[in-house]
Design brief:
By secondary structure, the protein is mostly helical. Helices cover 77% and strands 0% of the residues. The radius of gyration is 27 Å and the shape is globular.
């Protein structure tokens, strides 16, 4: 009893100090990262505001040298919308995004399901292997695939020729009908690991009791997959669809490293159009207008995705 009377007051006195220490630690992390977050936020905000500003001005080489940028209103936006090259680039973007996102939504869940069925130990190994393409910088990935698809000494041609699938080396990069395919393959190889890990994490989060209950009710493997797995993966797949579509619309590095927009304008996408007008032709106002039009299209597309496809799932 004596020890109890001595310990209880000490514990009661230590509790406020411990609570103050926990409260201080709770605010320490935000205080430490807030300068960096503030700096990054101001940098991004300045870039967005300045790009919006120059999209209403004629900003070219003369303006950059002399510092004068005449106000032109919506002229830059009209120039972009009336440019057939912009609409051609936008169609190429839709083709690229549709093909790459479709492949990711097929390959990602398929690989994730195989990893989930393989067991924990094998999944740990395969996760490490799958992360390798995701860790490669996009430009490096593009350079690597440009060597693989090289028309003279590329391994892809060598393998296809040895298998008897082609009779001679294919000019992948100089064929307008094949250049976009090369970019899609390189891009999907790099980005599919993101889909795999996202879906695999969602699969690991599904309670096993749901599968046990379905099995008790007499559901087979296919019925459990269709009635339990797929419905519970829908929110994750929609998030994956939105994210991958947004990033596919912003593809740039692989095109820069593999085709440089060629041959002709066959691999011109919206981001390449914006880059070319802003930094190659030095029409920064037109480039900024194109960037905001692309952002508007992405925002509308993401809204439609979430509005039409997203369903909240609770279990």
């Amino acid at each position: 009893m004596g020890d109890g009377r001595l310990v209880a007051p000490q514990a009661a006195a230590a509790y406020p100090r411990r609570e103050r220490r926990v409260r201080g630690e709770r605010f320490l992390a935000p205080a430490l990262v807030s300068p960096a977050v503030l700096l990054i936020g101001l940098t991004i905000a300045y870039a967005l505001v300045y790009a919006f500003y120059i999209s209403f001005h004629e900003v070219g080489l003369r303006a950059l040298r002399g510092g004068s940028a005449p106000f032109v209103g919506l002229q830059n936006y009209r120039a972009v919308l009336s440019d057939s090259l912009f609409w051609s680039s936008f169609r190429h973007t839709l083709v690229f995004a549709g093909a790459s996102v479709a492949l990711e939504l097929i390959l990602g869940p398929a690989i994730a399901l195989a990893m989930n069925q393989a067991g924990v130990s094998l999944a740990v190994v395969t996760q490490g292997v799958i992360l390798l393409p995701w860790a490669i910088p996009p430009v490096v990935n593009g350079v690597m695939w440009s060597f693989l698809f090289n028309s003279k000494y590329g391994y892809v041609n060598a393998i296809l020729l040895r298998l008897g699938l082609i009779g001679e080396y294919v000019q992948w990069g100089s064929d307008p009908n094949l250049a976009m395919l090369v970019v899609i393959v390189a891009y999907v190889w790099r980005t599919t690991p993101f889909a795999v890990l996202l879906v695999h994490a969602a699969l690991r989060g599904i309670p096993p009791e749901l599968f046990d209950a379905a099995e008790v009710d007499g559901a087979g493997a296919w019925q459990r997959f269709r009635s339990v797995t797929i419905p519970l993966l829908v929110p994750t797949l929609v998030v994956l669809l939105v994210l991958r579509t947004v990033f596919a619309f912003m593809v740039f590095d692989e095109i820069l490293a593999i085709t440089d927009g060629g041959p002709g304008d066959s691999t011109w996408v919206a981001t390449w159009y914006i880059y070319s007008f802003a930094f190659r032709y030095l029409k920064l106002g037109v480039g900024s207008a194109g960037a905001y039009l692309l952002s508007l299209a992405l925002g509308l597309l993401a809204f439609l995705y979430v509005r039409l496809l997203y369903r909240r799932v609770e279990y």
